[in-house]
Write a structure and sequence with these properties.
Length: 289
């Protein structure tokens, strides 16, 4: 993984995702092969390898008799953050996750979504270079999920952090991640950018075009090189099947405008990553090309 990369880690239940995360965090020793973080072995060089790694598990099991401030204080101690810097670090992490007003409330009194937020706050302590997030959006309301999408994007894009995100929520992965990989029964099925992966697995990319009247531009769109098919979705919406490696959006937009129709939407079809996931799962073998 590279700096600034957000990798979506996909796979059905029982595929080996949790095992991979445990290996990455040095909680398991590989029987074959090796794992390295910043060139270090997370098992034999555990502390040095994981000093700048933050982790939020799928089902955080936090000490409910503590308050968020007390829990994060223990985390700053473990990370050897100085007593002078610790209060600011704790306050900053709680502010990022929206828990400032719950600083001194017992964790046992927090909702499931708040506990999830606190787990992410704990992972953010020390400004880690690598965040390992296992289903971080579970238990969050839509506003909370949108907030953390922005937080993770900022960490990757502005601070150059790397995020390893395991999730079953395809829409979150598609909107947030720069790279995706999928495993099944311990085997890698694909890895690459989202657009490349969709093209590799499905063989095509799909565009949604919303124009009115759509009949006026339909023939011109079909004639564009790279447009394999045009499926009418409703009165003014088309789904275009585009050849792999082609980006015909400028040509499609021009065809609509030249025809005299009004262009309302031109974007990649929704749920393409979900289609890709299901197709890769159906094949069950490596689908990279």
């Amino acid at each position: 993984m590279e700096k600034g990369e957000v990798l979506g880690f996909l796979g059905p239940n029982g595929s080996g995702k949790t095992t991979c995360i445990r290996l990455l965090l040095g909680l398991m020793r590989p029987t074959t092969g090796s794992v390295r973080i910043r060139g270090l072995d997370p098992v034999s060089q555990h502390r040095n390898a994981l000093t700048k790694v933050g982790y939020s598990p799928e089902l955080p099991n936090l000490q409910t008799f503590l308050t968020p401030r007390e829990l994060l204080a223990l985390t700053t101690d473990e990370l050897l953050i100085s007593k002078a810097e610790a209060p600011h670090e704790i306050a900053s992490s709680l502010e990022i996750v929206g828990l400032t007003e719950y600083t001194n409330v017992k964790i046992s009194k927090l909702s499931k979504g708040m506990v999830q937020r606190l787990s992410i706050a704990q992972a953010l302590i020390g400004s880690p270079d690598l965040l390992v997030m296992d289903e971080p959006m579970i238990g969050l309301d839509p506003a909370g999920a949108a907030h953390f999408r922005d937080v993770f994007k900022k960490i990757a894009q502005e601070k150059g952090g790397t995020i390893f995100l395991s999730s079953h929520i395809m829409s979150e992965v598609e909107s947030l991640c720069t790279t995706v990989c999928m495993i099944h029964k311990g085997h890698l099925l694909f890895k690459g950018s989202i657009e490349e992966t969709i093209g590799n697995v499905l063989g095509s990319i799909f565009l949604i075009v919303e124009a009115d009247p759509v009949e006026r531009c339909l023939d011109s769109i079909k004639a564009i090189p790279g447009v394999e098919d045009a499926l009418r979705k409703n009165e003014r919406t088309l789904e275009l099947k585009i050849s792999r490696g082609k980006d015909v959006r400028p040509e499609v937009a021009e065809a609509v405008i030249r025809s005299g129709a009004k262009l309302y939407t031109l974007n990649y079809s929704e749920n393409l990553l979900e289609r890709t996931y299901l197709e890769a799962l159906r094949r069950g073998t490596n689908v990279e090309t």
